[in-house]
Amino acid sequence: MLEKMEILHVEKVIEEFETMTKDTENVQRETLKKILEENGSAEYLQNLGLNGRTDPQSFKACVPVVTHQDLDPYIQRIVDGASSPILTGKPITTISLSSGTTQGRPKFVPFNDELMETTLQIFRTSYAFRNREFPVKNGKALQFIYSSKQSRTKGGLFAGTATTNVFRNSQFKKAMKAMQSQCCSPDEVIFGPDFRQSLYCHLLCGLIFREEIQLVSSTFAHSIVHAFRTLEQVWEELCVDIREGILTSRITFPSVRSAMAKLLKPNPELADLIRRKISGLSNWYGLIPELFPNVKYIYGIMTGSMEHYLKKLRHYAGDVPLISADYGSSEGWIGANINPNVPTESTTYAVLPNIGYFEFIPLKENVEEQVHDRGDANILSMEPKPVSLTEVKIGEEYEVIVTSFAGLYRYRLGDVVKVMGFHNSTPELKFICRRNLMLTVNIDKNTEKDLQQAVEEAAKLIAEEKQEVIDFSSHVDMWTDPGHYVIFWEISGEVSDEVLKECCNCLDRSFVDAGYVSSRKVNAIGPLELRILRRGTFQKVLDHYLGLGAAVSQFKTPRCVGPTNYKVLQILCDNVFKTYFSTAF
Ligand code: AMP
């Protein structure tokens, strides 16, 4: 009976999605109307002269396109406890801290019930499509999820990362149950105050329930790789705990200890089995299916800055499929992965037209068209001209603008996406990169994506030596004359100077943007510098962000560290132990 209800539910979700995406334009119009009606009394909207109008044309005419910086004073007043409606009709009671790993410090964004509901809708939608291809039944999930510290703002609002706000919400647990993907770890572990202790206990819970685990997941793929790298180091200690039924003394928090004590019983057979399984592996290949024989797939956001971790994740996963989770941000969700079968690197996200009102700034044509229309070339004075969700064109790249149920209106998210196709009449987006992450000295422009491709290319050289790039970042050094690119690498083990020198040359040659190549040739950009970091440096970077209130669940290594992100730059620079300059040009 229960099974039947689940199948019915899943089909209903797909049916609703199909109906909605066949009528994207109207659904968008209705969604905008609903957002503006619900929040019509908010000071921000009142001041813009909409006078009750809710149609897209009036909305675009009255409401400016903004950045987080523009809304910051309004959000700050909410954070400080102002009681009048500022950005939303209903008062905001919770604040999300976005990861801030790109800006260097967390940003505050409003969180409310409507945002929670859209989160669940995204989860349900991708689950429904995923479940058709990869059904899970009455299983458990090994989820590497962690909460951030939840604090109170000066004005008494709850503040935590968006994922923490979601995990704490009672609806989340219910939804996970309905999706038959309940986390195998107790709440005390998920919400434990120290993420290293939580990680250890997640691993232990996974091993205790190894037969029942049907999926391994986390919000971002980075956390899964991080977890299994840790397992490589602590597996013997885990086996001792399982054998004796006593938790290591390293776990110190009483709430975590007592929750784990309820699960842990002496089990020498299981400890021996794990030892045998791990001893039989060659270089940890296929670790996940070996430990969790019934795992159906591995799930988490795997695109964008997470692509770097895929190689390692595939190594651990053996033949278990990797499926990327959905596309969204602390500010709101955007699209669901409804094609779980495609290779991870080609994942697209179908926009859900009822979870927000979406616009897109065309990145290539916009300025050229306007120059043509206006006959002048004063590019800097031009306003971006966004198009609507149904006006985007296949093959084009855009910056995403969001209008949400949580008080953000025409908000530039800063992400670049490419339209790969349409599902009915809603676009399917490929995540390209963050727009503001740019390496540039003069006329060169290299994005996060260009950097990643260069690193991938150069990393092949150390792969021949059986080593890998654990993580990487970059910086533009303008203190030298001319300025030059600096790439930071943390690598897994010893690599000879000759090979690293060649990696440095390869990185330099791999930035193929015409501005870079021509500038390098005339020495308007100096030789690229590769700095090798001590092992554990990126762990220090992670710790730094955790100290600022970020959560491991949402962590993204900053790929380009500017001078304003002084602390991170200092951590990187203090941990350099070898430096190479390119001789490629
Ligand atoms: P946060 O600031 O922690 O809320 O993270 C949100 C950001 O993470 C987005 O603006 C994207 O840059 C990135 N992100 C979220 N989902 C995905 C995805 N599916 N693929 C690539 N990047 C993503």
UniProtKB/TrEMBL annotation:
<dbReference type="GO" id="GO:0005737">
    <property type="term" value="C:cytoplasm"/>
</dbReference>
<dbReference type="InterPro" id="IPR055377">
    <property type="entry name" value="GH3_M"/>
</dbReference>
<comment type="similarity">
    <text>Belongs to the IAA-amido conjugating enzyme family.</text>
</comment>
<feature type="domain" description="GH3 middle">
    <location>
        <begin position="349"/>
        <end position="434"/>
    </location>
</feature>
<dbReference type="InterPro" id="IPR055378">
    <property type="entry name" value="GH3_C"/>
</dbReference>
<dbReference type="Pfam" id="PF03321">
    <property type="entry name" value="GH3"/>
</dbReference>
<dbReference type="InterPro" id="IPR004993">
    <property type="entry name" value="GH3"/>
</dbReference>
<dbReference type="Pfam" id="PF23572">
    <property type="entry name" value="GH3_C"/>
</dbReference>
<keyword id="KW-0436">Ligase</keyword>
<dbReference type="GO" id="GO:0016881">
    <property type="term" value="F:acid-amino acid ligase activity"/>
</dbReference>
<feature type="domain" description="GH3 C-terminal">
    <location>
        <begin position="449"/>
        <end position="561"/>
    </location>
</feature>
<dbReference type="Pfam" id="PF23571">
    <property type="entry name" value="GH3_M"/>
</dbReference>
<protein>
    <recommendedName>
        <fullName>Jasmonic acid-amido synthetase JAR1-like</fullName>
    </recommendedName>
</protein>
